[in-house]
Amino acid sequence: MFVFSSKDIKHIIETTITTMEPTRSRSHKPIPAYVLFLAARFAHYFSSPELLEELLEATILAIKNVIKAKPEDMTLTAYWISNTSVLLHFLRKDVGINQATDFHQMRIEALLLDMVQMIVVDAERRIEKILEPAMLEHDTIAGMDEVKFQSDWAFLWRGSMSKASSKNNTAKRASSPLSPNLTSTSTFAGSAASGTSTPNPPRPLTRTSSSSMVPLANRPPSPRQRRISPRTITTMLSSLLFVMQTYDIHPDFIHYVLAQLLYYVSTEVFNRMISNKKLLSRSKALQTRLNLSILEDWIRLNNLPSKLHDQFAPLVQLLQLLQVLSLQEDFPTWIETLKKLELLNPTQVKRVVSAYRFEVNEYRADGPSANDGPET
Question: Which residue intervals make up region (Disordered) (predicted)?
């Protein structure tokens, strides 16, 4: 037990909480929880309920103030999650104190959950800054950013060439260095009907009048773009995991935090894709799926619960739909496909069907249409 009086509480709180710096030493990490519990035992068994209440009130307020002063200090928050968990455990294990501190235990538990949520919110804020370039812009396979889409240029170019044909003969038009070959099979995706793909994407169009012009797609990415990838996110997750494990945070809390962050990544990518027509294509779905697999590999490599993969399930089904949409030959095939995508609601499916972007030379089956989605 730790003998003290009411006048000593301020010093105890300052020493064990206010001025305490996080330490990685296994024997020193839980010192605040040990001291506060021993003081609580003395107050309960050898002093008065008032002294016990005063001690616990001061403890809760001091931890709140320390955390509030540095809300972005993940190490400090993890340290106090650990100590608060240990203190709460000790209070519940002691039969006498457990009954006398029921109200304060609820407050300590609420404080504990608030700190866990603070870690989640802070990590989400950090991930949000790099989410789009990491998951939606990073090219795991070189050349995917050069894929051309029919709605972007093929039909427009064909229209401009039709206007030119009124002033030029057919032979002259065919010999133009800017005339695209719309029947070429050299696009990245190849022919979906044949089930094959070629590694040579169409090169971006350039002006032939100046050899010094550099195609925009061929310009090297900025240093920031080169750095950011799905591994940027996994590095952040690894750092967070290391901090939580270092301070012996309970595995249930660790898994909760990671589940929340993976769910955040999944839902943000899902919502950004389905709300942006430019992202609703087969090549973008393939690119995003490859990026997502890096996060899945991270879960496996760190021996985390396999149920964490469930956070990606709706996004995975969206990406699957985008990759097979143009292969739906008939209505029965389409219905069978939808049965396997039970996590997508009718509104989402119709949005994908109506806004889907076909690549140049991508096979276009007769179905489905925007009206062929499941019933709402």
Answer: 166-229
Cα angle 231, 234, 239; round to 5: 125
Give the chain's end-to-end CA distance (angstroms, integer): 65
- With H, G, I as helix, E, B as strand and everything else as coil, classify residue 44: helix
Q: Please, what is the Cα angle at 247 between 243 and 253, to 5 degrees? A: 80
* Residue whose token pair is 């985008």: 322
Query: How far is residue 25 CA from its own chain's centroid?
Result: 32
Round to whole Å and give the CA distance between 113 and 58: 19
Adjacent-strand bridge partners of 325: none
Beta-carbon-side half-sphere exposure of residue 261 (alpha carbons within 13 Å): 29
Task: Tell me if the pTM is above 0.70.
Answer: yes
Alpha-carbon distance values, 172 to 130, 159, 165, 298 (Å): 49, 16, 9, 56
Angstrom CA distances, 204 to 144, 174, 213, 327, 341, stand at 12, 19, 12, 27, 36
From residue 263, how far is each of 48, 115, 315, 331 by CA, in Å?
A: 47, 19, 10, 33
Q: Residue 281: phi, psi to the nearest 5? A: -145, 165
Beta-bridge partner residues of 281: 357
Q: Which amino acid is at 221?
A: P
Q: Where are the domains of the chain?
A: 6-128, 131-141+224-372
Averaged pLDDT, 108-135: 97
CA distance 367 to 369: 6
Omega within 30 of 0 (cis) for the link into 368? yes
Gap between the Cα atoms of 87 and 4, Å rounded: 18
- The string of pLDDT tens digits covering residues 82-111 is 999 999 999 999 999 999 999 999 999 999
